Amino acid sequence: MFTFPAVLKSCEKFMGVDEGRQVHRLIVKMDFVCDIYVENSLVHFYSVCGSLDDASRVFDEMLVRDAVSWTGVISGNVSAGLFDKAVGLFSRMDVEPNAATFVSNALMDMYVKCESFPEAKQVFDELPEKDIVSWTSIICGMVQCKFPKEALELSCDVQSSGIEPDGIILTSVLSACASLGALDYGRWVHESIDHKVIKWDIQIGTAMVDMYAKCGCIEMAMQIFNGMPHKNALTWNAMLNGLAMHGHGQKALQLFEEMVREGMRPNEVTFLVTLTACCHCGLVGEGRRAGLLDEALELTKAMPMLPDVRIMGALLSACKANGNVELPQEILDRLVEFDSHDSGVYVLLSNIHAINQRWADVTRIRRLMMKKGIEKTPGSSVIEVDGKAHEFIVGDTRHPQDKHIRLF
């Protein structure tokens, strides 16, 4: 009986649906099909491998179901993007869901992925008991889905709940600090990690480098970076990005060369931040002057992976800086191929044409944005006061202290 779940787990690792089905047939033949432990393993296996019809069939034929059974089938539907079906299954649950079930059945995760923060928070608030898994799920989800301000607010709440945040939560909080430029709060997290003697791993180290680098503390970021015994591509990218953001283009290029020398394979993000560094310091290659955008485009074509919208957006920034209006048309064609919905690159391209009084092209780009349903993201700024991040959006008056702020 205990052998089958282990074998199915092995099949999961290489997505061996056919092999798993053979195991399933053996389970039926040996009459273990009514064992809930084995059945739950089958539901989980089929869900992970994306074979939801098989998962649902096993689930529907189960005579007895527990929280693990419901969690397996609901999580599978969430992973496949079948949110309505997942909610429908959740409403049918005939077991008492505890806090761990709530999290593992991915309802909260579903809302976060849909960027429905109020609903995710509602599910979280309604949990009868919140454990470390609950807090980890909501805080990490908020950071991943670009709600850093809310993540910081929740990180304050976890302190008052009596639960000790672990390295996973603090890593996500550091990422939120990096996004908001909340240096003081990030320093507090740094001190908290050292005080709690939490083991530094690559994830924590990378998040720390990213936070200090994005907040402008390049020396501290470099000190942590150099002190890390093990680094991955994310670590190198974080340091490269920090140097590029703050105008240290030459240092970024030197670090990129060091990365290559140490045998670390660059990825698309590495090329993006390196290209950004080139734009910031006026270079398209070591020792060359700015304006060689054709060569930069050739570099993107020679990359070992397809350049994404961020890399093409970096080229657009270079075009604007150099007043080049011929290259953007080729970049626009590439952006259409990507089916990008990033408003920033379209606005930037439109601005380039506007500067050069090419109004027909400006109109064409705006029509393309309307056709794709792309809206310009409103400008915003964030300021940290007493460890709390305050975000202000253009034309927004919803801040609770709006009237007092405007008196200044």
Tell me the quaternary state: single chain
Radius of gyration, in Å, reads 25 Å
Which bin fits the share of residues in helices? 55-70%
Computed structural class: mainly alpha
Strand segment count: 2
Task: Give the strand order of the largest sheet, numbering strands 1, 2, ... along the chain.
Answer: 1-2
Strand content: under 5%
The main sheet comes to: 2 strands, antiparallel
Through-space gap between termini:
72 Å
Helices and strands, in order, run as HHHHHHHHHHHHHHHHHHHHHHHEEH
**Form type:** globular
Number of helices: 24
Quick check: average pLDDT? 78
Instruction: Identify low-pLDDT runs.
Output: 284-292
Describe the fold and architecture.
Pfam families: E_motif (PF20431), PPR (PF01535), PPR_2 (PF13041). This is Pentatricopeptide repeat-containing family protein. One of its GO terms (molecular function) is RNA binding. Keywords: Repeat. The structure is a single chain. With 408 residues, this protein is mainly alpha-helical. Among the domains are: 101 residues; 66 residues; 29 residues, no CATH class. It has 24 helices and 2 strands. It has a two-stranded antiparallel sheet. Helix 2 packs antiparallel against helix 3, helix 8 runs parallel beside helix 10 and helix 14 runs parallel beside helix 16. The chain starts with a helix and ends with a helix. About 2% of the residues have low confidence.
